[in-house]
Amino acid sequence: MPDAAPERVALDAANIFRRLAARGVEFVVIGGIAAVLHGSSRNTFDLDLVFATDEANLAALGDVLTELGAQLRDVDDHVPFAPDAATLRRIEILTLSTTSGDLDLLRRPTGAPDYATLRARAERFDIGDVVVSVASIDDLIRMKTASNRPKDQVDLAELTQIRSLRRG
């Protein structure tokens, strides 16, 4: 009989943010958490991040992933996984389970500008004792438009309305 799928851990984004900040990891929050921080009522159960790809950042990110016990998510077979700089350098999208919940890492999401531009346009949000960079509402709208999944279409309607309300 195959092993039962491991039970998912509730997302503790604040803990992930603290650990990333403590190691000096450069990242931008995207996806559902970013939408929520901008005012969306969306429910989300994972954290989506875009990360800087310089060697020091990849090494620091790998250290945090190791601390968080990161494992490949939704992989039935045991696949060796080392969350180190060499692995992170090769990935475009990585879906992980950690001791602080599900974490998705993306090098360059569909519809997103390059990392430097995404980070420069990001808004800063104070999450408890850490300030995080969150993709701008315009960049989120671009990414949701490019992905165009059913859930993205729902998010688009809400994000567009939030943007309109902000601009008055």
Enumerate the strands of the largest sheet in spatial order, edge to edge or round the barrel: 1-2-5-4-3
Shape: globular
**Kindly, what is the distance between the CA atoms of the first and last residues, rounded to a whole number of angstroms?**
59 Å
**Structural domain count:** 1
CATH architecture: 2-Layer Sandwich
Helix fraction by DSSP (H/I, runs of at least 4):
40-55%
Question: Concise description?
Answer:
With 168 residues, the protein is of the alpha+beta class.
Note down, in words, how this protein is organized:
The longest helix has 18 residues. The chain has a single domain, classed as Beta Polymerase, domain 2, CATH 3.30.460. Strands 1-2-5-4-3 form a five-stranded mixed sheet, sandwiched between helices. Strands 6-7 form a two-stranded antiparallel ribbon. The N and C termini lie far apart (59 Å). By secondary structure, the chain is α+β, with helices and mostly antiparallel strands. The protein is built from seven helices and seven strands.
